[in-house]
């Protein structure tokens, strides 16, 4: 008697089929032409612009994300990346000539960028669009096929993303698969040629383990506790504005959001006062009624964040409403590293303010913890800025600002240590999704006998040749 397949087997079968289809598509060599890639990127741009309002509505439905933020941090951000890649791609795809060595004379050496093959892109919920589309742009630009798995925690947005992708591309070329943990597990069981994962550090470990099974290269864009340092000479009014903007954007649910502040103890009270004024300027006296302030993504995160408030001293905000999953922009103090709020990435609108006395203390404290994804320093002293930049380990960051390093597509974006590995954006994305093939083209008009046996007394000559750089 024939047995019917379980839903689990069916899903696994569908995923296998899709990967197989993409393998066949890639093998046709269609993606190797730069014209083909440009055409696909233009289709994506066109689809993005056509779906803009739908995406705004979906993100509002998922976590009340304001349209301004949905444009600036999602649709507009992706559009900017697309336009940059379309402008530069013809240049990037060319083999890059590198300097020659004497030992190889006569020769010319090149780096050829070739696509890996099929890429798997797994996204988180907090910037549900840009964190799957920006890697996809890199994958397409470099000539790969790709399967995109958006987050299940933003169902409305993920549905629009999947529809947009699946209506724009041949599924054998680029396809979106919706689903949660189980779907991701099915995908991870398959053999891909590249995996690009954005999400939490614990899931990053799971992804890397699965990738190791097939020796698939991975990029991990993870999280962590990103500090903000404010020295006694900082412009406090400006610092408060830039910290509050970076922290309360997306209601604090940003991977590079300032997680906590370390402020010189002499200026702590003034900074907190400036933060209070700034929050009122940004969101009014009752931020719950502001149209410019998002909500917490789900009950689990709402409960986790609310529980942090139990044993800290609230200086600004602190109000919560579980029916709306609203947590006010909040500043807390009297916090130690032993408090739960300091034990993991906060990922919400709660800002602990801790103090320091000397910059050496700051360097030692930050370096004693996991390497953060982002690091921000507010200080007027260039000498101090350079010392801190050299000695503190982190993925990327800003002096006298927050988040803006992520906005410049000419800067590679990524973490280090437990905040991730590999970086992307702009040309870095193209390079990331390309295998860099080294090729030496030897001349045939001369064949120096130096390297061939018998070696006789050629040792001093080869020594000299190696010194020529
Ligand atoms: P998450 O790790 O829970 O989920 C990310 C993706 O992994 C989702 O698509 C989910 O379906 C999948 N997933 C979840 N559990 C899985 C499992 N057990 N096995 C296989 N797949 C699984 O992350 P999240 O909650 O969506 O996002 C928040 C985290 O992402 C934060 O830590 C944040 O700092 C980080 N993040 C990092 C960046 C960055 O660029 N470095 C950007 C945004 C978010």
Task: Please tell me the CATH architecture of the largest domain by its name.
Answer: 3-Layer(aba) Sandwich
What's the number of helices?
16
Give the domain tally: 2
Oligomer: single chain
Number of strands: 20
Classify the secondary structure makeup into a structural class: alpha/beta
For the largest beta-sheet, the strand count, sense and barrel status come to: 7 strands, mixed
Tell me which ligands are bound: nicotinamide-adenine-dinucleotide
According to CATH, the fold-level topology of the largest domain is Aldehyde Dehydrogenase, Chain A, domain 1
What is the radius of gyration? 25 Å
Q: CATH superfamily of the largest domain, called what? A: Aldehyde Dehydrogenase, Chain A, domain 1
Widest sheet, order of strands: 10-13-14-9-8-15-16
The percent of residues in helical segments reads 40-55%
Short descriptors:
469 residues, alpha/beta, Aldehyde Dehydrogenase, Chain A, domain 1, Aldehyde Dehydrogenase, Chain A, domain 2, six-stranded mixed β-sheet, binds nicotinamide-adenine-dinucleotide, Aldehyde dehydrogenase, Ald_DH/histidinol_DH, Aldehyde_DH_dom
């Amino acid at each position: 008697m024939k047995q019917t397949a379980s839903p689990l087997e069916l899903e696994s079968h569908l995923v296998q089929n899709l990967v197989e289809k993409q393998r066949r598509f890639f093998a046709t060599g269609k993606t190797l032409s730069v014209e083909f890639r440009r055409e696909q990127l233009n289709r994506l741009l066109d689809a993005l612009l056509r779906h803009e309002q739908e995406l705004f509505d979906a993100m509002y439905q998922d976590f009340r994300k304001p349209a301004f933020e949905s444009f600036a941090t999602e649709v507009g951000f992706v559009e900017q990346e697309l336009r940059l890649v379309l402008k530069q791609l013809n240049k990037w795809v060319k083999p890059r000539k590198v300097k020659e060595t004497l030992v190889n004379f006569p020769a010319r050496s090149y780096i050829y960028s070739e696509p890996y093959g099929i890429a798997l892109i797994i996204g988180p919920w907090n910037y549900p669009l840009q964190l799957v589309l920006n890697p996809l742009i890199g994958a397409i630009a470099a000539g790969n096929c790709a399967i995109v798995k958006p987050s299940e925690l933003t169902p409305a947005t993920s549905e629009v993303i999947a529809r947009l992708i699946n209506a724009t591309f041949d599924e054998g070329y680029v396809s979106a698969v919706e689903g949660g943990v189980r779907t991701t597990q099915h995908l991870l069981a398959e053999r891909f040629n590249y995996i690009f994962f954005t999400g939490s550090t614990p899931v990053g470990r799971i992804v890397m383990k699965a990738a190791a099974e097939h020796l698939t290269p991975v990029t991990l864009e993870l999280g962590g506790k990103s500090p903000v340092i404010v020295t006694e000479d900082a412009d406090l009014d400006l610092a408060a504005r830039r910290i509050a903007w970076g922290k309360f954007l997306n209601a604090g649910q940003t991977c590079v959001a300032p997680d906590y502040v370390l402020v010189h103890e002499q200026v702590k009270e003034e900074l907190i006062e400036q933060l209070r004024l700034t929050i009122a300027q940004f969101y009014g006296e009752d931020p719950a009624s502001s149209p410019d302030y998002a909500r917490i993504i789900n009950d689990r995160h709402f409960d986790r964040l609310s529980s942090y408030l139990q044993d800290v001293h609230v200086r600004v905000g602190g109000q919560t409403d579980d029916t709306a999953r609203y947590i006010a922009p909040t500043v807390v103090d009297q916090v130690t590293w032993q408090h739960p709020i300091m034990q993991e990435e906060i990922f919400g609108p709660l800002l602990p303010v801790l103090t320091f006395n000397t910059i050496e203390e700051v360097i030692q404290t930050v370096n004693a913890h996991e390497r953060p994804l982002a690091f921000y320093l507010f200080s007027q002293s260039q000498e101090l800025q350079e010392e801190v930049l050299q000695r503190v380990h982190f993925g990327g960051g800003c002096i006298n600002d927050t988040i803006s390093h992520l906005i410049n597509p000419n800067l590679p974006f990524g973490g280090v240590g437990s905040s991730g590995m590999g970086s992307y954006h702009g040309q870095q994305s193209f390079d990331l999704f390309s295998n860099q093939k080294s090729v030496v083209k030897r001349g045939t008009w001369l064949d120096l006998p130096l390297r061939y046996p018998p070696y006789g007394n050629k040792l001093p000559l080869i020594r000299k040749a190696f010194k020529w750089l």
